[in-house]
Amino acid sequence: MRLPYVDDDPKMDTPEDQAVVERVKARRGGKLIPLDKALLHAPPVADGWNSFLKSIREQTTLPASVREIAICRVAALNHAWFEWDQHVPILRKAGVLSEEHIEKLKDREWDGSGLDDKHRTVLQYANAMTIGVIVKDPLFEKLKTLFSEREVVEITATVAAYNTVSRFLVALDVGEMAAKYSLDFS
Predict the structure, then answer these.
(1) Is domain 64-172 in CATH 1.20.1290.10, yes or no?
(2) pLDDT tens digits, residue range 79-118?
């Protein structure tokens, strides 16, 4: 990482900041991952991040396959390979995409051909939100025909959240992925 990680069991300066560490650990099953050890340089940021991402990962109504195709597509488009490595196993476990389709997620030009309508539309929506930010009306209307209003908001929040995650991971080189994947920081 481009900054030092906080310790595996950090001792913070204030009880409030120590409580943040404990909340993050509780969400992670007791162990901090490199992302947490980067975020904990700024405990209030880590706390908000932890709460927001918990809602995205654990409290939406989306099927795992929909959530994870959105997350993995964002990771691939943004070269966030730490994110990719964390989420591909979850996508595989969802059991909807073949290995071939999972690998195709890395292809920026792939339009989701071969996927069912819902997953293809989510992939295209993640593309639009990540690459150009503006989502054209026909794509948005298609999304609305396939998902409830709540699900549309949850998909949108998931793509937006993981664009934030990916940009943080790549900028700080969390997980030391730049060398592994030949990202040029020079």
Answers:
(1) yes
(2) 999 999 999 999 999 999 999 999 999 999 999 999 999 9
Q: Tokens 């932890």: give the residue.
A: 50
Compute the C-alpha angle 37/169/131, nearest 5°.
155
pTM over 0.70: yes
Listed by start position, the domains of the chain span: 15-58, 64-172
Residue 138 CA, distance from chain mean position = 25
- What's 28's DSSP letter? T
CA 87 to chain centre: 8
**Contacts of 138 by beta carbon, 8 Å cutoff, 6+ apart:** none
